Amino acid sequence: MSGEAIPDSPAPDPVFGVGVQLPDGTVLCKACGCEVEWSECEECGGEGGHDGHEEDALWYHPGEVAPCSGCNSEGGHHYCPEPACPTGAVGLVELDQKPLFIPLKREYFEAFEAGRKTWEYRRKGSRWNAETCAIGRRVTLSLGYGKGRRMAGVIIGFRIHGAPAELPGWTECYGSGPGKAACLEIRVDRDGRDQIR
Ligand SMILES: [Zn+2]
Ligand SMILES: [Zn+2]
Is 11 exposed, middle or buried (0-12, 13-18, 19+ CB in 10 A)? Predict the structure, then answer.
């Protein structure tokens, strides 16, 4: 008999493991406890999307990012680097549901307090992304890192901004280098009840 041998055992399925996100943004493999690593999405080069304005100028503002279907706009996936661990890609990251800690300079803290500010911008990365800043997650706004003045709130909106230099105060904090901004819309708790918007 000639012809190609057809392997009768399919390629092993990747084992999708579970990660646990700690409050500092670190993700640990739930199976072995080691810190997972990040693999960039090849479809979007880790950007989590592409230039939406170029694709649809009516829907997207300049610099706004249209979602990537290859990585569900995550920009990539976590994987466990430990060879002995059965976890390959981390398919699910469980959030530690502690409030997200957001230290702020005085002027921004007071602007939140006075209701003049509702959005906070951070450089997008492992600590600030759609997972760590999931809508509905509680936050602690803190004046600096001290315990003196804090406010509780909740994330009510999240988006990635592709041209963060346009954002107020961005260049002053982060410079004009490349990168995207994670934009968190935050509603501060008022007198124990949610502020009416
Ligand atoms: Zn592992
Ligand atoms: Zn992608």
Answer: exposed
How much distance in Å is there from the Cα of 71 to the middle of ligand 2?
4
CA gap 16, 90 in Å, rounded: 5
pTM: 0.50
Over pLDDT 90: what percentage of the chain? Answer: 32
Of the listed ligands, the closest to the CA of 48 is 2
* Residue 76 alpha carbon to ligand 1 centre in Å: 18
3-state secondary structure of 152: strand
Which residues are close to ligand 1, an ion, with C-beta < 5 A? 29, 31-32, 80, 82, 85, 87
Mean pLDDT within 118-137: 88
Q: Which domain holds residue 36?
A: 17-95
Amino acid (one-letter) located at 83? P
Read off the tokens for 31: 């199976």
Question: What is the count of structural domains for the chain?
Answer: 2
Domain annotation covers residue 4: no
